[in-house]
Amino acid sequence: TDRFDPAASDSRWQERWERDGCFRADSASAKPKSYVLEMFPYPSGRIHMGHVRNYTMGDVLARYRRMQGFEVLHPMGWDAFGMPAENAAMEKKVHPGAWTRENIATMRAQLKRLGFALDWSRELATCEPDYYGHEQALFLDLFEAGLVYRKESEVNWDPVDMTVLANEQVIDGRGWRSGAAVERRKLNQWFLRITDFAEELLDGLGTLDQWPDKVRLMQENWIGRSRGLQFRFARADGAGEIEVFTTRPDTIFGASFVAISPGHPIAEALAADRPDAAEFIARCRQGGTTAAEIETAEKLGFDTGLEVTHPLDPSWRLPVWIANFVLMDYGTGALFGVPGHDARDFEFATKYKLSIRRVVAASIADAGLAVTEAETGAGVAVNSKFLDGMATPAAAAEIIRRAEAAGWGRGVTQYRLRDWGVSRQRYWGTPIPIIHCQACGAVPVPRAHLPVVLPEDVSFDVPGNPLDRHPAWSKVDCPSCGSPARRETDTLDTFVDSSWYFIRFSSQPGDRPFDQAEAEAWLPVGQYIGGVEHAILHLLYARFWTRALQRIGRLSVQEPFKGLFTQGMVTHETYRAGDGSWLSPGEVRRDGDDWVHIESGHPVTAGRVEKMSKSKKNVVDPDTIVDRYGADAVRWFMLSDSPPERDLEWSIGGIEGAARFVQRVWRLAQPGASTAHEDSDLRRRLHKTVAAVGQALDGLQFNKAVASLYELTSAIEKAKPSADRAAAVQTLLKLVAPMAPHLAEEAWAQCGGSGLIADQPWPEHDEALLVDDQVTIAVQVNGKLRDTLTAPRGLTREMLQAQALGAEKVARLLAGAEPKKVIVVPDRLVNIVL
Ligand code: ANZ
Ligand code: ZN
């Protein structure tokens, strides 16, 4: 046939791969192993183009590694717990489980249509007891190892709906449903001791040389190591001390106040007998719990009337304020304010008329300059007694030395990283396997009783956690004393589910979370691919979980993801009608220089090219495209137009170009197809392409691989029929196979190739054929080497002479003068005599 027909072909090969168990990973294989993984999707409804791009990249790599002779693990699963399912339950009255499982079925079918080389036998969904039951076991392992604890901590509270809100449910400080201003409330919650691993997680970043620098930097900043001084101010009333933490001990003579957090014990004690203090603290509790919200909130202060004495000058007193920007869970929950050199302190001091003093300057001579805004950089100490003239780091070290010598403080390391709060007051998550007993406290559910399964009969007609309202589920007997007790009704943060799914993929025993030997055979993941939106939390939590398992002796792997790649987004044009509503690109047409709405004829404004999103109506549904162009054209387009880390703009031109390329390759493979007669050096070209495509795929530079394949295709099209040409076609098909696997299989079969092309070894190249037939020509002036040229072998004397005289360095030496004589030795040298 003269056309490749994806509609007939795609499903045929997909079934064949499935039937042959082609992409099943064999843990017992003697081949070297390669684990390729894309971040598993949240089953939100349908696959979008972003998924297609992500999974195509991983698929190309997986198929390439397989052809290279690796035993490849390339699995797929579903990050299936989370809020959207509960929102759907509230809005559409469907059970979160039914909604989720239906979405999974749809999306699985969509992925299958794209022909991904996945080991579907290892598919998992985190919402099934078969997965989350093992997660409960791991939670208990960590609990027993002291890596899990419970403490009181703040949550977002919606005062109208009377429910706890997840951070994502707080929009501009208000509850997403009620619109009420969110408050902070204290609740007992479960935490994982990730801070125990802060140093390891930071140091481990140094070993991740196959991660993007920007992601490592984001993790580094998130962990946030600061070195500084912790010391005590004595209260002037003699009633104890206030301990503070500073990263700028050099500014100690610039202190103008001490500020404590609204949650600080001194603040709480004060609130107990002063209503104005209590009221102030309550005011500070308004607004959400995110760090960003606390950072940007207006600075609020309350003068306690207390005073402390300066450690380096007992006659110097500083006022103590309660300030909303001081976090209780960082450092000591108290600080000394230096308005001259800290932006928050400057804002605070300006508002409350506290003194602002310069203690750092560019040089000693600038000591008298006024400070008009916080100068946070380094310099030399001024107005600081014995520190005067010392550079910032030396001055800081000097204060730490004196504090330690005199015993009023010590040098410390602080991390910004907080312990991981994993409690969620939600239904659709992994139940935390704990039972609360009046007498025994928090008791782990006995292992034999795992999994603790979510009840099916729950209602979503009122806000709050359905598990709390369920009449029977939480009522159990204490496993330790037998008296009536209560199940924990909090469920785990879904980031816990995604912190170990890649381990479960390695082996799926029924009686434990994973098989250690098999996990160690596959891990670490060789190449992990996903969105940069997961650069911080997901990756950090997965790294922590892996290290925690290592600490308790369950897995001897340090880092879960050896290579990380973060791909760009898929974007598309946007359009808006006169009333500001969005129109899909299919609803508009060009009219001269303008755009109009096809249906109404009204003018339309073309907007920016933006990430595909439902709200902007610029989504292209992969299924429609696969129907029309076939899987390979979509896959090819996803790889071809942009470097993979950049955004890819969807366009009809692009997908049609990809579809045309598929047909071009198809035609090449047809018997007797060539009517061309060029006698090109196809062999050399072919070996170069094999090398270039391999190198590009190793570096995940898919667009470069595509460009090389276009060139080879054109070269073959021009070549006259020959054995070289026939061999080139077969090799081309192998090179194209990871990207356009259906086409490659069909054409391979057509050319009489044996077996599946997916099972063929990756073509080898001959290094000797890679070197261009180029020579290096020495360019001399008066017999001295001045420059070199690269030229094709056999270039004429005249051409060589012209090139040499045109060389920049030679032209400079000649300075316009005519050379006396030019001696040319072809393929070797040009000597210019002046
Ligand atoms: C005096 C000072 C002078 C400070 C100066 C900064 C600049 P990083 O670098 O993020 O670790 N701080 C201490 N505890 C705090 C808390 N619980 N909540 C909010 N801020 C707190 O920040 C350390 C600095 O943040 C500390 O150094 C302290 O202010 C403040 F020119 O002390 B500094
Ligand atoms: Zn008990």
TrEMBL record:
It catalyses: tRNA(Leu) + L-leucine + ATP = L-leucyl-tRNA(Leu) + AMP + diphosphate. Its main location: cytoplasm. Keywords: Aminoacyl-tRNA synthetase, ATP-binding, Cytoplasm, Ligase, Nucleotide-binding, Protein biosynthesis. A motif ('HIGH' region) lies at residues 41-51. Residues 680-795 form the Methionyl/Valyl/Leucyl/Isoleucyl-tRNA synthetase anticodon-binding domain. GO terms for molecular function: leucine-tRNA ligase activity. ATP binds at K614. Gene3D superfamilies: 2.20.28.290, 3.10.20.590, HUPs, Isoleucyl-tRNA Synthetase, Domain 1, Valyl/Leucyl/Isoleucyl-tRNA synthetase, editing domain. Residues 220-403 form the Leucyl-tRNA synthetase editing domain. InterPro entries: aa-tRNA-synth_I_CS, aa-tRNA-synth_Ia, Leu-tRNA-ligase, Leu_tRNA-synth_edit, M/V/L/I-tRNA-synth_anticd-bd, Methionyl/Leucyl_tRNA_Synth, Rossmann-like_a/b/a_fold, tRNAsynth_Ia_anticodon-bd. A motif ('KMSKS' region) lies at residues 611-615. Residues 39-170 form the Methionyl/Leucyl tRNA synthetase domain. The keyword Protein biosynthesis applies. HAMAP family: Leu_tRNA_synth_B (MF_00049_B). Belongs to the class-I aminoacyl-tRNA synthetase family. This is Leucine--tRNA ligase. It comes from Sphingomonas arvum. The lineage of its organism: Bacteria, Pseudomonadati, Pseudomonadota, Alphaproteobacteria, Sphingomonadales.
